């Protein structure tokens, strides 16, 4: 049985492929990331400009035109058919203490714009310093702690707008 794939081009066009379809593709590597492709006796020059193998997203240049391509495999298609959005999750609006400890440093201020993975504060717990980072980009709405405050597990530390 051949595995199904769905290929999305520029988030506009969708193509259904199987392993069998891909095995019939006449493509020859001419150099690193450059290919000569024949499809229905028409020649194409293709180049993989960039690739993110883990998320299966590619930027491909074909005869001078660049296309954003993403590939959904059999599992992706099953998850989609179940009505589940891959990578979707709830938006985190609050940062709570993951463990009891002592606030060593607050790295942000109210109203400050932060990006995902920016340091928010440093919490000392069990003689270890733990840097709590932003789970998302956003604006700091409030800070419920100050340097040298002792906190309990689950205590509100920072709120996002």
Explained architecture:
Residues 79-161 form the Lipoyl-binding domain. It comes from Flavobacterium urocaniciphilum. InterPro entries: Biotin_BS, Biotin_Carboxyl_Carrier/Decarb, Biotin_lipoyl, Single_hybrid_motif. It holds the Pfam family Biotin_lipoyl. By secondary structure, this protein is mainly β. It has two domains: 4-81, no CATH class; 94-160, RNA polymerase II/Efflux pump adaptor protein, barrel-sandwich hybrid domain (OB fold (Dihydrolipoamide Acetyltransferase, E2P), Beta Barrel), CATH 2.40.50. 8% of the residues lie in helices and 53% in strands. It is built from two helices and 15 strands. The strands form three sheets. A seven-stranded antiparallel beta sheet has the order 2-1-7-6-5-4-3. It has a four-stranded antiparallel beta sheet with strand order 8-15-13-10, with no helix packed on it.
Write the layout of secondary structure elements.
Elements: E1 4-9, E2 13-18, H1 19-23, E3 26-31, E4 34-39, E5 42-52, E6 57-62, E7 65-72, H2 74-81, E8 94-96, E9 101-106, E10 113-114, E11 119-125, E12 128-133, E13 138-143, E14 150-151, E15 156-160
Antiparallel strand pairs: 1-2, 1-7, 3-4, 4-5, 5-6, 6-7, 8-15, 9-11, 9-14, 10-13, 11-12, 13-15
Pfam family, one: Biotin_lipoyl
Organism: Flavobacterium urocaniciphilum
Domain Lipoyl-binding: 79-161
